[in-house]
């Protein structure tokens, strides 16, 4: 007799698309959502939640049905454990689409000393236990590399709980670590110890966990001219008036270098879609098409500060959208 | 019995002592005044800073764009202007072309990407303009907007100067900020959706937490026998107040979403979760208020044959109401500003349409503020502050009624 | 019949029941009073009205609540029995999506069909909805009538309607107070299982007494040893929330309350009290920015100036100070109310002894108002413990075990939020640690509250 | 009962107490009191300050229930019904056994509302006009009407001490209880007001059972027909007032009423 | 002054009031009273309930300041100093002019702390032992010591009405003020306790100026040497007590003391 919006009955449905996940992909996803509504009169606006990649995966993999999201945004690839969790909950056919690239930028205040870094320097400055030779004693950049000024090391970066921090570890720290041959050997021998040595960040205040708010890091850099900040490339781009780039390996973070992967801190961005929802949720296909129409270099993706993927990747993704090819879990780590 | 003489109040020692007590009294009073002034000046500082940044968020820069409709590549029949026709007319592209003719190659950088919406609305309002040249005010791009209002990039400042010379630039009150919802372009976003979300959420919170909180306080203070059982209830309520809000989010997630299958991101669930969090505050404040009603009042009423329920609802409750309302005010204020538990139940989300009811997806003001504060575009800085001003206005309005009632009920006896 | 209509109808029935029962009671009582025996009449006629109205409404409402949960299932079943349902896909979700759409169209909340299959089901749906809707309405009305009639026959002058109605009031008050218990249990339950899993990975002793908190190590798979020592977090929580913030909030809040109730003119009080209450409502992001960008750098510069080593741009002091400001209203408003409620005769008694106002306040009013003052302080501490945004932005996330207020520390709640909202993994100790932290925090605050309860009981000075 | 006692049987007592003991926590305030209160006469309780008069009075309408530390033993009946029985409706009991407290405790409401409250909750007035009549009559009987008739809507707490006391008397009689317990109703009253209250008591006698606590022997002698003398929690002597005052049987009573005590 | 008045000059008065008017909001409660209070005699204020005795008493140590609606006009001096002068030290004034209120208002503290409160804030005790002496002496003088000596650390609010009243008297005299204002100090007391308080008053006379409000003519006659009769806010007659009671000059006074009033 009463309303039945409780959704408890067998006939639960939803007429809105729901996406959850990465805060990095969020700006692009929202832009796509907006364009989707503009291009499809009568469609309800998709709901994009910013939960972080891991949180999004957890929700995404909880099951198939109206109460579970259709799409997971991710600033890294799905992990094997997550894929298995999905499968366990009946989320079998998952479509993986790479939508673009993000750069992990290093920046300092315009008044800053103009540091020039390499993954090796960053690693030696930030590792908790560089090359497994005992606690990091470097106090200034000069301690790490004599060519650098004697300025106290101070890096504002993502907290250990964030996906962006994983990227920092993977893209920069591990590379710096592997400059040492012994470490490469260690990787083969003892993966755990290798990880600990190569990705663990010092906790003595030189590296400052700064929460998820990148604007705050930008502002803090303004107040601390000698500090270096690590955050999404788009924030560097937007704040060029107060910040300047810290080149890595002599490569500046620019649109081109990130897009081509020449810049070391580039990482791919994905969305994951449940195939089972394609037929049940109105407009889902159209939404994916809108993604595809906007991830080109002149599309909404770049307007929102991200970088378009190389052409071949885009092509492959476009095909996935069309054919709804499902992900083969065995390639995941 | 030994007798003592009257104290010599005029003696030098006594005089000195009293002078000292007066000094202490003055210090104490000054400390009180100082505390009030200091607290108020913190607030004033915050408010002034926010106003400074935020008031600009209520205005926007517009460019008067001359559109020669007959000459434009727009294919629209003035007699059949429907939403669908407008949606299919590819207005964004047409706007781009028109802007290029009017403003030159930099038009893209000068106009908001959503400028075409203004043109669409103009056509909708008066289809006859399709047959002539019309001047339509469209929002400027974020860069231009910033440059026009305060500090922008040098290029944009130059553009501003030039456009001003042409007399096409104007800054006016941004009505769409009060009527629109979340979006991706700072010139186009509005606070209405989040505002409505907060309104609905707070409504649910109030409807649930106030009666339950007051009822609990009454039960514990007036009826429950004082034994271990009431001690347990008391301690667990006090303890609930200390539970981090995100844990209420976890609870809401597992009970309201996973168990009861209520809709995700809905004001209903948000309100219920926040109600759990607000209730202890109301209970604690309420109990204290009830405790401070003198027992002689209860005796008087019981003595003429009032039932315990009548004593409570006709005497104790009215006298305790100011204190209960204080608890409600601070509890609701906290609920209004809360973001963490709402994340767990899906309210930290991009929601571009205002909710129609408590079961529709919604976000709330503090979440909107949080989301905007994390946006890349600098145009969002002033929008964030403007949203904070709206939140404070909401807070004031919400508390206004409670404060009015509190002042009304407050009596000293 | 639609939901609102039936509710309206029931409300109408309730009103009729109230009016007629009240009228009948009044008539009977007038007659009974004439006999002169006082106990011939027990309750006011209004109570009889409520008694009958409640019997009319409550059973029907309970039935409707149950029906609302049962009926959709019945409707769906009868639709599935329809031949048109044979063509539905087997896949459960698509199937329910189509059914849901058909229902939405049938009850008019959606105009057109996205899926062609659902169009065929609209008709059966409309029929089934109608059928069960009417059935529910009829049953509810029957219940309402039956309940009302039963109660109506009991209306007699000496019937104890007031006692019955009050019993219901009492029961609802009791139930309300149980919500707190249920919530508490719910919280414990939602923390317990995951905490248990956490403690099967990490030794509880290490967790409770370890002094190194470094969840990144666990996150990156270098094992759980030496990664989950929660002591620095608890220390940080106490340092920021219970020490620094309270050093700000208690004096400012209490003194403000005292000034406003005892010294300021009523008009000033009327305006200042709500003004200060705004401090509690300013969103924490605002405080966070204020703390991180204005207070923290200033404090660091100050610390460097006076030569303190290890001054960081994220400091416990910055976060604590700003948090203290935020919770001033918790102390000030609750203390204000309690002090204002102390009877005037207590003040008079003290003033007449030649006490100054400040002596009267500190020696008579505050002790008498103690429960309220302590209640406010406890609420304030609770709020401070639960705060995250300010800590993240101004005190950093580094778990240092230090008493240096210029150093960066972090709190339990902050870590819980970071762990729960950051990049989580399903089974890693890192995510589960959030639950364990929550549980331990819960237990610690519980113990503190028990102590506080004892203390207040002991020192309270009850007036009358 | 620890002491030998005058045996005073009353046929058909309105209230009777049997071996009532009251404890405040550990401390025993009433040590086993048995007494009968009838309709036809006013009973006065006298005794030195702190001897338990108020405490005993409060047991008669179960007001001691509201003191957390108080505990009552023994049996008290009203019209033969045990008022401490679980089946007893305490609310109705208190409506039937009205009370005027020792410390005047007006509600922080208007004078009118103070009086009207009782009749309203017991449904004694048929309407506004009826209520006005009740209020006026009660205030008149309490001897307060002339002083407050122009300010019925001022607060009851803004009255003088004696006025508050009379307001509380008016409030108690407004509900027309069967038994009226008055704890020093005239303590704050001048002789004229006192006379009015005594007149009221005379007027009520016969229709109501009345118990009055007083420190004023003359008053006890004037208004009461039975007097009970309490001392240190004991009911030392209970008898016909004239007997007690002229011919007390107990030494302690004699000492007290002749002022030789202490 | 609206009425002709007995002219009673006192040399060297301790306190004197000149044309004092008190208003509660619009309502005038005291209509212009002039009176002198000396050290050598006890002054009694008598008059019907609500006539303004308490109100006037409260003007003498400025306790009316605490009633928001109250407004005082006229001049009152203590040892020749105007107590309403801005330079007046109200704290010292109230310490010098002690007060016992009509409704007992013990602090919600222990009995001991109730008494010790005043001496402590005024620094009258040299130490714990000294304080114990003061507490005992004050309680003894108030006639309460024997009843409470075993429970000095129980709450003052858990006393009987009369005990509370004596506690408040003890509290007031513990600071040894120069003037003592007592508003019906014996209203809740039995004859024996009353006698003790009256004894106390006798004992204090000469060294302290004492004003006592009472409804008990006998008491006024017993303890006072000067009597002031108030009526409807007027000071109708002020004179030597024996004169007033035997030979009142005003018709109203006569009516009142002979009980023929009203
Ligand atoms: N706070 C107040 N506000 C308004 N009117 C008041 C207030 N206090 C007393 N009054 C009025 O002032 C008049 C004098 O009151 P006051 O208390 O002085 O009388 P009193 O002589 O002490 O009487 P009693 O013997 O009954 O105590 C009375 O009419 C009383 O109602
Ligand atoms: N709430 C209480 N808690 C503990 N003891 C109490 C309480 N109330 C009264 N008493 C004690 O019980 C005894 C009897 O008190 P009660 O009030 O009955 O005396 P009373 O005869 O009315 O005296 P009074 O004439 O002074 O009013 C006294 O010793 C008193 O101190
Ligand atoms: Mg008594
Ligand atoms: Mg008086
Ligand atoms: O939100 P993330 O992109 O850091 O997972």
UniProtKB/TrEMBL annotation, chain B:
GO terms for molecular function: phosphate transmembrane transporter activity. SUPFAM superfamilies: MetI-like. It is found in: Cell inner membrane; Cell membrane. GO terms for cellular component: plasma membrane. Gene3D superfamilies: MetI-like. Residues 195-402 form the ABC transmembrane type-1 domain. The chain crosses the membrane at residues 30-50, 199-220, 240-259, 266-286, 316-337, 384-405. CDD domains: TM_PBP2. It is a multi-pass membrane protein. One of its GO terms (biological process) is phosphate ion transmembrane transport. Belongs to the binding-protein-dependent transport system permease family. CysTW subfamily. This is Phosphate transport system permease protein PstA. It comes from Sphingobium limneticum.
From TrEMBL, chain C:
One of its GO terms (cellular component) is plasma membrane. CDD domains: TM_PBP2. PROSITE patterns: ABC_TM1. Keywords: Cell inner membrane, Cell membrane, Membrane, Phosphate transport, Transmembrane, Transmembrane helix, Transport. It comes from the Bacteria. It is a multi-pass membrane protein. GO terms for molecular function: phosphate transmembrane transporter activity. It is found in: Cell inner membrane; Cell membrane. GO terms for biological process: phosphate ion transport. Pfam families: BPD_transp_1, DUF3708. InterPro entries: MetI-like, MetI-like_sf, Phosphate_PstC, PstC_N. Coiled coil: none annotated. Residues 235-452 form the ABC transmembrane type-1 domain. The chain crosses the membrane at residues 49-70, 132-153, 173-193, 233-260, 280-303, 361-381, 388-412, 432-456. Belongs to the binding-protein-dependent transport system permease family. CysTW subfamily. Part of the binding-protein-dependent transport system for phosphate; probably responsible for the translocation of the substrate across the membrane. This is Phosphate transport system permease protein. It comes from Sphingobium limneticum.
UniProtKB/TrEMBL annotation, chains D, E:
InterPro entries: AAA+_ATPase, ABC_transporter-like_ATP-bd, ABC_transporter-like_CS, P-loop_NTPase, PstB-like. PROSITE patterns: ABC_TRANSPORTER_1, ABC_TRANSPORTER_2. The keyword Ribonucleoprotein does not apply. GO terms for cellular component: membrane. Pfam families: ABC_tran. The keyword ATP-binding applies. It comes from the Bacteria. Keywords: ATP-binding, Nucleotide-binding, Phosphate transport, Transport. CDD domains: ABC_PstB_phosphate_transporter. GO terms for molecular function: ATP binding; ATP hydrolysis activity; phosphate transmembrane transporter activity. Residues 15-257 form the ABC transporter domain. One of its GO terms (biological process) is phosphate ion transmembrane transport. This is Phosphate ABC transporter ATP-binding protein. It comes from Sphingobium limneticum.
């Amino acid at each position: 007799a009463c309303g039945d919006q409780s959704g408890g009955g067998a006939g639960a449905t939803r007429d809105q698309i729901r996406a959850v996940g990465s805060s990095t992909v969020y700006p692009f996803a929202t832009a796509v959502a907006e364009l989707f509504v503009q291009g499809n009169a009568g469609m309800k606006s998709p709901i994009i939640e910013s939960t972080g990649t891991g949180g999004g995966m957890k929700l995404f993999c909880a099951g198939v049905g109206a109460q579970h999201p259709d799409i997971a945004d991710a600033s890294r690839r799905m992990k094997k454990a997550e894929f298995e969790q999905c499968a366990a909950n009946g989320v079998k056919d998952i479509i993986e689409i790479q939508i673009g690239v993000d750069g992990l930028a290093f920046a300092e205040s315009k008044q800053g000393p103009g540091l020039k870094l390499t993954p090796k320097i960053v690693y030696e400055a930030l590792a908790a236990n560089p090359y497994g030779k005992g606690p990091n004693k470097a106090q200034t950049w000069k301690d790490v590399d004599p060519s650098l000024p004697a300025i106290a090391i101070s890096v504002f970066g993502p907290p250990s709980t964030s996906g962006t921090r994983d990227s920092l570890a993977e893209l920069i720290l591990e590379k710096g670590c592997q400059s040492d041959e012994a470490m490469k050997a260690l990787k083969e021998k003892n993966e755990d110890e290798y990880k600990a040595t190569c990705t663990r960040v010092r906790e003595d205040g030189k590296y400052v966990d700064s929460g998820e708010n990148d604007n705050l890091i930008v502002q803090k850099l303004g107040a601390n001219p000698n500090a270096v900040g690590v955050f999404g490339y788009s924030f560097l781009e937007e704040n060029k008036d107060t910040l300047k780039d810290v080149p890595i390996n002599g490569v500046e973070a620019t649109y081109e270098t990130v897009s081509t992967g020449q810049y070391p801190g580039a990482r791919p961005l994905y969305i994951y879609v449940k195939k089972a929802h394609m037929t049940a949720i109105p407009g889902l296909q159209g939404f994916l098409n809108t993604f595809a129409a906007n991830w080109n270099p002149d599309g909404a993706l770049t307007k929102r500060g991200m970088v378009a993927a190389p052409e071949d990747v885009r092509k492959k993704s476009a095909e996935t959208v069309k054919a709804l090819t499902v992900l083969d879990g065995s390639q995941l780590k | 019995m030994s007798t003592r003489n009257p104290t010599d109040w005029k003696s030098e020692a006594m005089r000195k002592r009293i002078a000292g007590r007066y000094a202490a009294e003055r210090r104490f009073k000054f400390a009180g005044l100082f505390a009030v002034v200091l607290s108020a000046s913190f607030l004033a500082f915050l408010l002034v800073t926010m106003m400074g940044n935020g008031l600009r968020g209520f205005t926007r820069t517009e460019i008067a764009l001359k559109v020669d409709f007959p000459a434009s590549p727009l294919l629209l029949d003035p007699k059949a202007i429907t939403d669908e026709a407008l949606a299919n007319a590819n207005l964004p592209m047409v706007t781009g072309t028109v802007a290029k003719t009017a403003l030159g190659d930099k038009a893209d950088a000068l106009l908001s990407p959503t400028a075409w919406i203004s043109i669409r609305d103009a056509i909708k309002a008066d289809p006859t303009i399709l047959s002539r040249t019309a001047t339509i005010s469209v929002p400027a791009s974020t860069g231009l907007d910033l440059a026009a209002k305060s500090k922008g990039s040098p290029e944009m400042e130059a553009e501003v100067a030039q456009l001003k010379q042409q007399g096409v630039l104007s800054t006016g009150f941004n009505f769409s900020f009060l009527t629109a919802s979340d979006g991706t372009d700072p010139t186009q976003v509005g606070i209405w959706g989040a505002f409505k979300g907060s309104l609905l959420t707070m409504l649910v919170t109030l409807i649930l937490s106030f009666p339950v909180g007051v009822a609990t306080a009454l039960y514990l203070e007036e009826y429950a026998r004082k034994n271990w059982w009431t001690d347990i209830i008391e301690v667990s309520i006090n303890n609930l107040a200390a539970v981090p809000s995100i844990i209420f989010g976890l609870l809401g997630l597992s009970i309201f979403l996973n168990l009861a299958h209520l809709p995700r991101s809905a004001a209903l669930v948000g309100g219920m979760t926040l109600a759990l969090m607000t209730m202890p505050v109301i209970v604690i404040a309420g109990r204290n208020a009830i405790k401070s009603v003198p027992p002689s009042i209860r005796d008087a009423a019981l003595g003429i044959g009032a039932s315990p329920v009548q004593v409570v609802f006709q005497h104790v409750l009215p006298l305790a109401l100011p204190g209960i309302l204080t608890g409600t005010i601070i509890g609701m204020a906290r609920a209004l500003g809360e973001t963490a538990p709402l994340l767990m139940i899906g309210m930290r989300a991009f929601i571009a349409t205002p909710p129609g009811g408590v079961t529709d997806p919604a976000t709330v003001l503090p979440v909107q503020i949080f989301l905007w504060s994390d946006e890349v575009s600098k145009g969002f800085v002033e929008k964030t502050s403007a949203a904070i001003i709206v939140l404070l206005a909401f807070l004031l309005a919400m508390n206004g009624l409670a404060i009015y009632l509190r002042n009304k009920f407050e009596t000293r006896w | 019949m639609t939901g609102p209509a039936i509710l309206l109808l029931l409300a109408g029935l309730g009103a009729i029941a109230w009016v007629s029962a009240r009228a009948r009671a009044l008539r009977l009582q007038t007659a009974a009073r004439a006999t002169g025996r006082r106990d011939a009449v027990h309750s006011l006629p209004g109570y009889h009205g409520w008694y009958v109205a409640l019997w009319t409404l409550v059973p029907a409402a309970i039935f409707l609540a149950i029906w609302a949960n049962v009926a959709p299932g019945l409707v769906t079943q009868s639709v599935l029995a329809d031949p048109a349902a044979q063509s539905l896909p087997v896949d459960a979700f698509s199937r329910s999506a189509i059914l849901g759409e058909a229902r939405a169209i049938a009850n008019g909340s959606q105009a057109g069909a996205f899926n062609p299959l659902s169009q065929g089901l609209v008709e059966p749906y409309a029929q089934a909805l109608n059928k069960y809707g009417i059935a529910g309405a009829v049953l509810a009305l029957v219940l309402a009538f039956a309940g009302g009639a039963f109660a109506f026959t009991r209306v007699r002058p000496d019937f104890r309607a007031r006692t019955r109605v009050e019993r219901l009031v009492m029961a609802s008050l009791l139930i309300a107070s149980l919500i707190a218990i249920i919530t508490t249990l719910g919280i414990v339950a939602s923390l317990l299982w995951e905490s248990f899993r956490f403690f099967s990975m990490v030794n509880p002793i290490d967790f409770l007494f370890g002094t190194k908190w470094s969840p990144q190590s666990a996150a990156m798979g270098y094992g759980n040893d030496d990664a989950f020592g929660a002591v620095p977090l608890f220390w940080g929580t106490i340092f920021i929330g219970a020490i620094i913030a309270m050093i700000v909030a208690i004096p400012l809040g209490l003194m403000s309350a005292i000034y406003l109730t005892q010294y300021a003119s009523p008009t000033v009080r009327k305006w200042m009290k709500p003004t200060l209450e705004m401090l509690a409502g300013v969103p924490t992001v605002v405080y966070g920015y204020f703390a991180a960008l204005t207070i923290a750098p200033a404090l660091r510069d100050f610390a460097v100036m006076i030569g303190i080593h290890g001054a960081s741009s994220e400091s416990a002091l910055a976060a604590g100070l700003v948090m203290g400001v935020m919770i001033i209203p918790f102390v000030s408003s609750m203390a204000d109310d309690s002090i204002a409620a102390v009877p005037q005769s207590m003040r008079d008694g003290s003033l007449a002894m030649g006490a100054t106002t400040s002596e009267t306040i500190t020696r008579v009013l505050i002790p008498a108002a103690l429960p309220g003052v302590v209640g406010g302080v406890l609420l304030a501490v609770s709020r401070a413990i639960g705060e995250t945004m300010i800590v993240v932005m101004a005190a950093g996330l580094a778990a240092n075990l230090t008493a240096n207020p210029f150093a960066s520390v972090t709190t339990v709640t902050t870590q819980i939020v970071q762990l729960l909202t950051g990049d989580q993994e399903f089974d890693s100790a890192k995510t589960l640690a959030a639950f364990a932290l929550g549980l331990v925090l819960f237990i610690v605050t519980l113990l503190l509250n028990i102590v506080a309860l004892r203390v207040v009981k002991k020192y309270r000075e009850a007036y009358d | 009962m620890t002491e030998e006692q005058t045996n005073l049987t009353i046929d058909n007592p309105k209230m009777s107490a049997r071996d009532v003991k009251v404890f405040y926590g550990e401390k025993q305030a009433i040590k086993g009191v048995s007494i009968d209160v009838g309709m036809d006469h006013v009973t006065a309780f006298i005794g030195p300050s702190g001897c338990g008069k108020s405490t005993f009075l409060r047991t008669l309408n179960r007001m001691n229930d509201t003191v957390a530390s108080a505990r009552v033993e023994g049996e008290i009946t009203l019209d033969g019904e045990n008022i401490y029985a679980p089946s007893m409706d305490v609310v109705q009991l208190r409506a039937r056994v009205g009370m005027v407290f020792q410390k005047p405790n007006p509600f922080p409401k208007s004078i009118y509302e103070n009086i009207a409250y009782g009749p309203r909750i017991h449904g004694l007035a048929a309407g506004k006009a009826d209520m006005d009549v009740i209020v006026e009559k009660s205030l008149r009987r309490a001897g307060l009407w002339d002083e407050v008739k122009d300010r019925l809507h001022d607060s009851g707490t803004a009255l003088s001490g004696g006025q508050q006391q009379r307001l509380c008397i008016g409030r108690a009689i407004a509900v027309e209880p069967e038994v009226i317990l008055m704890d020093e109703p005239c303590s704050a009253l001048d002789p004229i007001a006192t006379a009015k209250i005594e007149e009221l008591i005379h007027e009520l006698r016969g229709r109501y059972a009345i118990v009055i606590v007083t420190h004023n022997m003359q008053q006890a002698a004037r208004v009461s027909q039975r007097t009970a003398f309490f001392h240190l929690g004991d009911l030392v002597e209970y008898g016909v007032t004239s007997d007690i005052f002229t011919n007390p049987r107990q030494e302690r009573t004699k000492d007290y009423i002749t002022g030789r005590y202490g």
